[in-house]
Specification:
The protein has a domain of 85 residues. 78% of the residues lie in helices and 0% in strands. The protein contains five helices and no strands. The termini are far apart.
């Protein structure tokens, strides 16, 4: 069973873990402004916490969005919504959700943040030769 045929969501503890990783990363980056005069080693640890956390979080979000889009397309949900016998308000609501998943550019945002995080980590490791 591949990721696009598994129609189950992730367990709540996994979702909560990735939420915590995203939150910790955001806090780490914001803490850097408060650490301007701290030991450079501490600053790098906080920066790496933020960068690796964002990398992890945004790869997770990318895979979730990609899975949603692929499932929507594979199952031809837009076409089926139009043909179904849902009441008009239900059809409109479901149409909006599926259409917004298909049109959203968030997947590119997640990919860009992940790739930029990899580049930033690689650049720092290269410049500081750790």
């Amino acid at each position: 069973m591949n990721a696009y045929t598994n129609l189950n969501t992730l367990p709540a503890p996994v979702v909560n873990l990735f939420f915590a990783i995203g939150l910790l990363s955001a806090l780490a980056f914001r803490a850097l402004i408060l650490l301007q005069n701290a030991d450079p080693t501490i600053i790098r640890i906080v920066w790496y916490t933020g960068a690796i956390g964002y990398l992890t979080f945004f790869i997770y979000r990318y895979t979730i969005t990609k899975k949603r889009r692929e499932i929507s397309r594979k199952h031809r949900l837009m076409e089926k919504i139009e043909e179904n016998k849902l009441d008009p308000e239900d059809r409109q609501a479901l149409h909006y959700i599926v259409q917004s998943l298909n049109k959203s550019k968030e997947i590119y945002n997640y990919l860009a943040v992940a790739l930029l995080s990899i580049a930033a980590i690689g650049l720092d490791l290269t410049l500081n030769q750790i």
